[in-house]
Write a structure and sequence with these properties.
Helices cover about 20% and strands about 35% of the residues. It is of the alpha+beta class.
Length: about 160
């Protein structure tokens, strides 16, 4: 399990003076990018292949409030990956300074070609980097059907 520490700053709070939901998303994104960079998915490597990650969804579950003054930790686990590396799924847990879990996040995404703006499989050079990553016991090989499990589709204004 990968862990990243954060200090809760003044601008991480909302009007209720607890950690703002935008901060949860920001902490998770920072954790993911730190993890990917440490795995070898740095700007140079992504630029070489002209690819970047895109998010399909992030589901966050809040268990208790968190206030400023104490550090927090965000974990990351790679819980799913398609056989071609196109789709990925991560799990984040948020812990207070005592190690108590105060929130949970599930995210699914894919890799996009930055020129064509289309989803792509990971080049072998990059997909092999994920082979070295420790996987949790519930890790699964993702399929395109997994990306549609919530059955959400766009509804345009003129259709409402």
């Amino acid at each position: 399990m990968y862990l990243k520490d954060f200090e809760i700053r003044w601008n991480d709070l909302d009007a209720n003076r607890h950690l703002a939901n935008a901060s949860y998303i920001s902490f998770a994104a920072h954790t993911r990018m730190s993890f990917l960079m440490e795995c070898g998915f740095d700007h140079t490597m992504l630029g070489k292949h002209n690819i970047g990650p895109v998010v399909f969804y992030e589901h966050i579950y809040y268990f208790k409030e968190v206030f400023s003054g104490k550090p927090v930790r965000v974990s990351l686990e790679l819980t799913g990956l398609s056989a071609d590396g196109m789709f990925f799924e991560f799990r984040h847990n948020y812990y207070d300074y005592k190690g108590q879990n105060f929130a949970h996040c599930e995210i699914m995404g894919a890799w996009i070609d930055l020129k064509d703006r289309k989803l792509i499989s990971l080049p072998t050079e990059l997909s092999e980097l994920f082979d070295k990553v420790e996987k949790p016991s519930d890790f699964k090989i993702l399929t395109k059907a997994d990306t549609r499990k919530y059955q959400k589709s766009p509804v345009n204004l003129e259709e409402v």
